[in-house]
Design goal:
Layout lengths: L1 H76 L6 H24 L2 H20 L8 H24 L1
Helix pairs in contact: 1-2, 1-3, 1-4, 2-3, 3-4
């Protein structure tokens, strides 16, 4: 029996070292994995924020081209412009508006895209056909024609960006 006692006392420190190495290795592995997961989450948050900022930029661009197209309609129906210069502005504004809408289609949720399409169609219609009411003042009639779809678009965007 004394022999086992001597052997046991020789291996006890070695067993402590082995257990210490195993526990330390497991702790380092666990900390490394936790660090990797935290980095993945941080990277995903940064990507999501960058995508959101890109969408906001394109939504603002869309609103700017819609605003220009509204001015084109006001120039036509309130200021009675229809010359070649106005026609060139009209074509450019409508083209830019539809390109901006297609960008929204690619980058935003379907409900945002649907609201943008509705607004673009209403702006295009008021440019081509004029406001439904032929009375004066025509600038206010143009804005009244567009107002419901613009408000719907802005409401959807606000809810989407929350």
């Amino acid at each position: 029996m004394p022999r086992w006692g001597v052997t046991w006392t020789r291996f006890t420190p070695l067993l402590g070292v082995v257990l210490g190495v195993v526990v330390s290795s497991l702790a380092q592995y666990s900390l490394g994995r936790a660090s990797e997961r935290a980095e993945v989450r941080r990277s995903a948050r940064e990507r999501a924020e960058a995508r959101r900022n890109e969408r906001v930029t394109h939504l603002i661009d869309f609103l700017a081209v819609v605003q220009e197209a509204e001015r084109v309609a006001v120039d036509r129906y309130h200021h009675h412009l229809a010359d070649e210069q106005w026609q060139a502005r009209q074509m450019q504004a409508v083209d830019r508006m539809w390109v901006a809408q297609k960008t929204i289609h690619m980058l935003c949720a379907s409900e945002v895209n649907a609201a943008a399409r509705r607004l673009a169609y209403d702006v295009q219609d008021v440019i081509r056909k004029g406001p439904e009411d032929p009375g004066e003042p025509q600038d206010e009639k143009v804005w009244a024609y567009i107002r419901p779809s613009r408000k719907a678009f802005l409401d959807v965007v606000r809810d989407h960006l929350k």
